[in-house]
Amino acid sequence: MDSRLSKQIQCSVCLGDFVDPVSLLCDHTFCRQCIGNHSQSSRGLRLCPECRRPYTMWDLRSNRVLRNMVDAVREHLSEQQSLRDRGASAAGTDRTTTGPVLESEMLLCPEHDERLKLFCETDQQLVCLICRDGDNHQGHKFKPVDEAAGPKKYTLALTTHSRISGVKLTPVEFIRFINCSFLLFEVKSTLSKYMNQQFPDRNVISDCHDPYLRVSSDGRSVTRTAKKGLFYRQRDYRPLARTHKTFQSGQHYWEVDVGEKRDWSVGVDEGCISNTNKDIRLQLKHSQGYCVKENGTESDKELSVKPRRIGLYLDCDRRQVCFYNADDMTLLHSSVYASSTPYSLSLSPGVYLQDRNADPLTVCWN
Prior knowledge:
By secondary structure, the chain is of the alpha+beta class. It has 3 domains: 2-80 and 170-198, 2-Layer Sandwich (Herpes Virus-1), CATH 3.30.40; 97-149, Double Stranded RNA Binding Domain; 203-365, Sandwich (Jelly Rolls), CATH 2.60.120. It is built from 7 helices and 19 strands. A hairpin with a 5-residue loop joins strand 1 and strand 2. InterPro entries: B30.2/SPRY (IPR001870), B30.2/SPRY_sf (IPR043136), ConA-like_dom_sf (IPR013320), SPRY_dom (IPR003877), TRIM/RBCC (IPR050143), Znf-RING_euk (IPR027370), Znf_B-box (IPR000315), Znf_RING (IPR001841). Residues 77-97 are annotated as: Disordered. This is Tripartite motif containing 109.
């Protein structure tokens, strides 16, 4: 049963557990590094390692459900192995009389420096002969250590066996859960393809015609290019891409996959509507760390974890902007604004960093 569970979380390229799994449009999933290495080694057309369908790096989508499942399965298998080890240890002590007894004979009383040869049934502790005759144990019942250990070893073995028997049923439920999760992922992928076919105007990011940015064909990803401009502008230049639409009423929510990028920015601004530099954004700067920028003013932001996906909530009616760690919906920052002008989602893939920050920013949910 454990082997069946392990195969469900196994990458077909490296044959190890998934690490940062990503899925292609054909719904096959691989470790991000594995498919990246495969893409670099491919000459010309990139083909899926399993079905040989062509793909591009724009097609990669983080599989958050599978990543959480991998962690859950690992924890489950680890707990099972731990219970088995305890059961084997308890069973072994039933077949021998030397293990724990010898250990107890080697233990010394911290008060009298004598061997702990007796077990006080009243206080449920090991004692030496001097402790037995002392005032603290007057009227107590005692047994030799080996005699007292027998029933307790038997009780421990029964308890451990009972726990292991109870766990034996859970892998079947785990397999069902995993199969259902994969089915839901397939349904989501199918619906996403259908929506993109039926509503091609769902593209999020507009083609900003900035030579330092490249927007994907589906309008959901933006990448920093390696183009070198006048005076090497790309070193500190953080170009922005914005949504087609502006928002002035209602509530709106986006999730942006930032992955392992070293430099990025996610937020809202007034775009080209005004020159007042009104914006609210959460940023990661490679040389500074996390910071919040509000209307041109930056302030450092301490985060306890490194988020891989940012949730951005815009409440136009309350004029409030909230940033979340989308993996567990922990609130990272909240701001209010006074302007009544419409806002746009604005993204920056950050500075180029000599190809060390080349991954795209991808809008995963809108």
